[in-house]
Amino acid sequence: MFQFFKRVKTYMGSELNAALDKAEDPVKMLDQFMREMSVDIREAETATAKQLANEKMLKKKLDEAQSMAAKRQQQAADAVEAGNDDLARRALEDKQNYMKQADALQPAHEQAAADSAALREKLAEMKREYEEMELKKDSLKARAESAKTRTKMNRTLSSVGGDESRQGFDRMEEKVMQYEAEAETSEDLRSGSRSLDDELAALKKGNAVDDELAALKQQFKKE
């Protein structure tokens, strides 16, 4: 169970690039890793709780055996004081049985206590690593989203200046130039047709002026 955390840490580090090369979604993978780590923590918590319960049970039995041994010792002393050696002997024999139980329970309890301490330490380490991975996951997810956004923008920008788009703009520019040339041609044609009318109108206008000028000259001659 605890080795899984080491594998996850390695995967989230040096092997994450390999996952990206395989076109795997790093955001979904990181979320999956965190879920698996969370399951391992819950299993570790259950195992630690069971071990602590076992340690407490052994401690209780050890305390009871030691307490009963001490009690039988006192009862044996009371029986001797009362002059009842047979009762004292039986109390001492029972005391020996409790002492044997205590002697057997002592190392078992010590081992259970050591195992409980180790499990608690491992569990605390797992939770610390989980918190570190949670922070790293958020950072990696942000970097992944940023990288995807940059890639999308770069592809969009590159397509704007692509050959197809450029050729399309060139074609539209040629059409606009063609429209402009046609407009200029039509204006030239219209200008040519207007020039004849203008010349005729100017001719008539010029004759009227000449007639007015001649009339003025004739007036001065009379005077």
Your description of this structure?
- It comes from Planococcus lenghuensis.
- Belongs to the PspA/Vipp/IM30 family.
- This is Phage shock protein A.
- α1 packs parallel to α4.
- The protein is 94% helix and 0% strand.
- The chain folds into 2 domains: 159 residues; 54 residues.
Q: Major β-sheet, in short? A: none
Note the overall shape: rod-shaped
The N- to C-terminal Cα distance equals: 136 Å
Domain unit count: 2
- The unreliable regions are none
Helix content: over 70%
Proportion of beta-strand residues: under 5%
The Cα radius of gyration reads 53 Å
Pfam families: PspA_IM30
InterPro entries: PspA_VIPP1 (IPR007157)
Family: Belongs to the PspA/Vipp/IM30 family.
Biased composition (Basic and acidic residues): 133-148
Map the helices and strands.
Blueprint: H1 2-13, H2 16-21, H3 26-81, H4 85-160, H5 163-222
Helix pairs in contact: 1-3, 1-4, 3-4
Features of this protein?
223 residues; mainly alpha; rod-shaped
Summarize, please:
94% of the residues lie in helices and 0% in strands. The chain is built from five helices and no strands.
